[in-house]
TrEMBL record:
Protein's organism: Salmonella enterica subsp. indica
Gene3D superfamilies the record matches: NAD(P)-binding Rossmann-like Domain
GO molecular function, one term: 2-hydroxy-3-oxopropionate reductase activity
Listed GO biological process terms: organic acid catabolic process
Transmembrane segments: none
Coiled coil residues, start to end: none
Gene transcribed to yield this protein: yihU_1
Residue span, 6-phosphogluconate dehydrogenase NADP-binding domain: 4-132
Keywords associated with the record: NAD, Oxidoreductase
Pfam families noted in UniProt: NAD_binding_2
Keyword Oxidoreductase among UniProt keywords: yes
PANTHER family, sorted: 3-HYDROXYISOBUTYRATE DEHYDROGENASE, MITOCHONDRIAL, 3-HYDROXYISOBUTYRATE DEHYDROGENASE-RELATED
Source taxonomy: Bacteria, Pseudomonadati, Pseudomonadota, Gammaproteobacteria, Enterobacterales
Leading EC class: oxidoreductase
Protein's recorded name: Oxidoreductase
Keyword Oxidoreductase carried by entry: yes
């Protein structure tokens, strides 16, 4: 299974991270709310004291944050993701941010030699609990192949 850093354990992020744990993935989690972190630790996640620590050894880094300024800070700020991110890792941003911010973040990550993709989610936290947010797995990927590919940031 994958080694994943999950950053942002709010109403959407917490159930998403929990579902990844249930599927057997190894998670390192970070959030500014220690109670949110502890709930995931109780389910088997490893706690991290910073985004940089969460990212050590991760194949994937998932951010689920409420705005673009927080995503930028988590990626590029002090003790941010880029301090420890492997060049082979993929950052997956699922945050609620403006498409132009997404474009700029992806360009800035690419300029530093990192890979990042925009994977917006639709629906509610209840849908996150029941795993009804994104298409995943071979069957769903085949069924959902884009007919009209969109550039990053276009949702």
């Amino acid at each position: 299974m994958a080694v994943i850093a999950f950053i942002g354990l709010g109403q959407m992020g917490s159930p998403m991270a929990s579902n990844l744990l249930k599927q057997g993935h190894q998670l390192s989690v970070f959030d500014v709310n220690p109670d949110a972190v502890q709930r995931l630790v109780d389910k088997g996640a490893q706690p991290a004291s910073s985004p940089a620590q969460a990212t050590i050894g991760a194949e994937f880094v998932i951010t689920m944050l409420p705005n673009g300024d927080l995503v930028r800070s988590v990626l590029f700020g002090e003790q941010g993701v880029c301090e420890t991110l492997s060049r082979e890792a993929l950052v997956i941003d699922m945050s609620t941010i403006h498409p132009l911010q997404t474009d700029k973040l992806i360009a800035d990550m690419q300029s530093k030699g990192f890979s990042m993709m925009d994977v917006p989610v639709g629906r509610t936290s209840d849908n996150a609990i029941y795993r009804h947010l994104v298409a995943a797995g071979r069957r769903y990927v085949r069924a959902s192949r884009a007919r009209y590919p969109c550039p990053d940031g276009d949702g």
